[in-house]
Structures are given as structure tokens and as C-alpha cells.
Amino acid sequence: MKSNVKRMRSFVFLLIAMLMLTACGTSNSKTSTDENRTSDNQSKGKITVGGKDFTEQHILTKITSIYLKEKGYDVKEATNMGSTVVRQALENGQIDLYWEYTGTALVIYNHQPVETDPDAAYEKVKEIDQKKGLVWLNKAELNNTYAIMMLEKKANELGIKTISDLADYVNNHKEIKFASNAEFYARQDGLRGLEKKYEFKFQPKNVIKMETGLLPNALKEGQVDASIGTSTDGRIKEFNLIILEDDKHYFPAYNAAPVVREESLEKNEELADQLNELSSRLNSETLIQLNYMVDVEHKDVAEVAREWLTSQNLIK
């Protein structure tokens, strides 16, 4: 009898042990599956997308971030940086990529002569930066070059159609109030270079520095007579502004392209093709419209970016 009881106890203990092993095996299997799933989600890698501190850059940064998130990347944004700051962040590995302009990189970062031919500027800066471990992917047909702008009514009143006309007007001891952001005022291919090229000089008291986003509004409200701006600003048409002809070809080509750390491309094999797909869809006309939606219609940048990506069938 005792023998039967012992055998029964042994059987129960064995059964319990088997159930526990089975439970542990199931638990381990589930944990393993979860780990694999996490690994799959992270297989695309972590990407930090940088951006500068004006509307077009906010849009490009947000388009890129949303697009890459939809592709499965773990995306972080680092925005509102000045040109030299975002460039240093890329070189230092604090960000993986951002959209840069050929003229800026060529003249400001690499201290090369101004190049007005878009293809020549792109090939030259691409070659120089490659040696630094920075890869220029395909440039977009987006040339956001600097421009001198005036209210159309004011320009017609003063008989100014070109930058040479503006220079002649100033040289004849007539005052023009000119608005500039801090960057254009200070940089090599900025105001001083413009004055040297066209052989004129604004009186210091007539140069008013303000934030980039306020420049077209200053023209619209009559606070200034002329202003630096960019050729893809969405407010040009809305505010009845005109761009003075750069008849001496001073301003460089400023085609935008994704610039990516070589290390980041090596870690993410599909990244180059994915970003090149974005570049192929972007052009000056597109950015004028997107800038308009943000600056004039006051739509949210993320909303504008997502709507455009959806319209291009780049995301669902």
C-alpha cells in the first residue's frame, strides 16, 4: 500500500515537473518571438534627421522624417539650426542627414569660388565632401537661390528691374531701405559680396536686420524698399513681390540634396535609394506651393508634409 502511495506521489511530482518545463518552454518561446519582433522593427536602424531654421527646411525635414518612419526607421528630428551648426552636427555624427544647398556647402563650408552652373556646383561639392565621409545623394530640381525682392509697385515706381538698376539708384545718392537676415549680412556670398560685384554700397543706417521669416512681410508692409529673400518663398506671388534679375550672375546655384554620413548609409542599405526617390519628386514649383501653404495659409508643417507624401503615393 505504502509502495502504491509512493509510486502515486512520484507520478504526481513527475507530472508537475513536466508541466512546469512545458510552461517554461512556452514562456521562453514567446520571449524569443518578442525579441525577434523587436529586432525586426529595429533592423531599419535609428536615423536622426537635421534641419535649418526656416520654413522650407522645416518642410523638407518633416517630409523626410515622416517618410522614413513609414519605411520602418526609428526617426529623431533635430531642427531649427543655423547653417554652420547643422553642418557641424553632421560632421560630428550628431545627426545622420539633412537637406543642404550646393551653393552654401561649396562657398561657406568648403571655401570654394562661387559656381552658378547647377550641375558643376553639385559635382564639385559632391567630390569634396566625399573625402570627409559625407555623401551627396541625387540633387532635386529645387534651386532655392538667394534673390533680391521688391514690391512690384515700388519697383515699377522707381524703374528698377535688375540688381544693376538697384545699384545705380543707390549710387545716385538715393536712399533705399534694405532688409537682410543675419546670415546673409555676414556670409561671404552675402551682402558684402553683392555690393562688391555690383559696385555699390547701402548706407549702414539703411540696412535693417531681421529674422528670415519676417523679410517678405517687411516689404509688404512698406517697412523696407528691398530685401534679400529666396526664390522659392511662397509669399512672392501672394504679396505681389518681384525678384530683381541677377544680371551679373552673382548668386550661386542652390540646388537642394540630402547629405548623409557615409557610416549611416553603410548601416542602412536601402536608405540611399529611398532618399533619392524623395529627391526625384521635389522641384522649385512644388516647394513654392508647400511654402505657400505653411507661410500664407498657416497650415501645420506636419499636415502639409503628410498630404504631399500621400499625393505622391510615397506613404499610405
Descriptive overview:
The strands form 3 sheets. The protein has a 5-stranded mixed sheet with strand order 7-6-8-5-9. The protein folds into 2 domains: 46-143 and 254-311, D-Maltodextrin-Binding Protein, domain 2 (3-Layer(aba) Sandwich), CATH 3.40.190.10; 146-243, 3-Layer(aba) Sandwich (D-Maltodextrin-Binding Protein, domain 2), CATH 3.40.190. The chain contains 15 helices and 10 strands. The chain is globular and about 60 Å long. The longest helix has 40 residues, at 2-41. With 316 residues, the protein is an alpha/beta fold. It has helices at residues 2-41, 55-70, 83-91, 102-109, 118-130, 152-158, 163-171, 182-186, 191-198, 215-220, 235-238, 262-267, 271-281, 284-295, 301-311; strands at 46-52, 74-81, 97-101, 134-136, 146-151, 178-180, 207-209, 226-230, 241-243, 256-261.
Tags for this model:
316 residues, alpha/beta, D-Maltodextrin-Binding Protein, domain 2, 2 domains, five-stranded mixed sheet, 15 helices, 52% helix, globular, disordered N terminus
Summarize this, please?
52% of the residues lie in helices and 16% in strands. With 316 residues, the chain is α/β, with parallel strands linked by helices. The strands form 3 sheets. A 5-stranded mixed β-sheet has the order 7-6-8-5-9.
